[in-house]
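thread: overnight batch results

M.L. [08:02]
morning all. the overnight job finished for the chain we discussed friday. pasting input first so we're all looking at the same thing
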Amino acid sequence: MTKKDFGGIVNASRTLMCAYKSDIWKEKFKEEQFADCTRAEAIRMRDELLQYIGE
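M.L. [08:03]
and the structure it wrote out:
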């Protein structure tokens, strides 16, 4: 079996909703920019997951 043979669900709703407060993004985004920050965090998370599974 390979890593691709396993499925999974990632629940990151709170991480995404509060991304603008995280150390990663708090210097780059203000609270009013939460939508842009949420998008940036979702892309970061996607890239990290793809890196892990070897995509």
